[in-house]
Amino acid sequence: MLVGHSYGGDLTRLYASRFPHGVVGLVLVEAANEDQWWKIPEARTAWDEYLHECRKKPKDGPATCAEAAALLDRGPAELEPIRSLGSLPLIVVSAGKSFWAKGETWAAWQAMQASDSALSSCSDQVIATKSQHEVEKDEPLVIVTQVERMLKAVRDFPSA
């Protein structure tokens, strides 16, 4: 079972698609979406600002910044063909409070979270009503509850 937050959600989806026999379930927590860079200009601006600040750190900046910059190069392109995870058990935990400045950006983000839950025919979306993007800080028990729920579901699932 894999659990991924933000860009970690992209990584867990990619892993699950490449190694489907090694994954029994996914919990995506406020997962990034391969379309966010193109559909949400505010996301791209925030990311560019992060990269600019990242490059100001000479000690650990170069490797960190190179890895972060690669997210926009390879990350979305590798995820583009992953439009279905079949019947892999999936729980999508989404923020209930906006962390975007514009209402239309929040609406676009919510739509992307909903589209993530449509990746599997065996999925559920849970809204962390008191949380913004950092659900693990705002409402950690929501994540714990969903991980426990997934563990129970995969234990009870009849094996092939």
Features:
Rossmann fold; alpha/beta; single chain; 52% helix; four-stranded parallel β-sheet; globular; 160 residues
Give a brief description:
With 160 residues, the chain is of the alpha/beta class. The chain contains 8 helices and 4 strands.
Walk me through the topology.
Blueprint (H helix, E strand, L loop, with lengths): L1 E4 L1 H12 L7 E4 L6 H4 L1 H14 L6 H13 L1 H5 L10 E6 L7 H15 L5 E6 L6 H4 L1 H17 L4
Parallel strand pairs: 1-2, 2-3, 3-4
What does this structure look like?
There is one protein chain. Strands 1-2-3-4 form a four-stranded parallel sheet, with helices on both faces. Helix content is 52%, strand content 12%. It has eight helices and four strands. Strand 1 (2-5), helix 1 and strand 2 form a beta-alpha-beta unit. The chain has helices at 7-18, 36-39, 41-54, 61-73, 75-79, 103-117, 135-138, 140-156; strands spanning 2-5, 26-29, 90-95, 123-128. By secondary structure, the chain is of the alpha/beta class. The chain starts with a strand and ends with a helix. It has a single domain (2-156), classed as Rossmann fold.
